[in-house]
Amino acid sequence: LPPPQKVTSARGLGPRAGRMKPEALKARMTRRVPNAFLDIIAINDSAKRELTPDQIAKLQASGDAFKVRADSLVDKVANILGDTTVKSPDPMTVFSKLQPSMTEGRKLAVQAINDAKAILTPAQWAKVPESIKTPGLRRGDGEGGRGERGGPGNG
Length: 155
Prior knowledge:
The protein has 7 helices and no strands. The chain has helices at 4-10, 22-30, 36-42, 53-81, 91-119, 122-126, 130-133. It is elongated and about 55 Å long.
């Protein structure tokens, strides 16, 4: 986990940090919400997973539904973090407001992994990279590393 100063500063809670607007927070968090379904489709050819048209359709539909739910969570979190009605938010108060969304996000990510696994054959699933199978691994944003807690709403 990053040091507490980094967390509070990134969330606009540190003494020198300017608070980010909800739109900026949404854009930042959306990049960090892994959508296993669409990620699997994106690497289908390079990983030689040989998905069937039916599997691709199921993954796409599930990915679209996941995106709607994830976007809703991102909106909630961004609105909490970007709340300008509180001049100097207490980090513990903010965290207590975030906790339900973070828990829901983790459950959503784990369910997405299980649902994606159910769509694929065991041989296809074996070819899925760990970065997709494990929501706690951050991918493609140049931050974080193995062993970090992650998933929607975290980061």
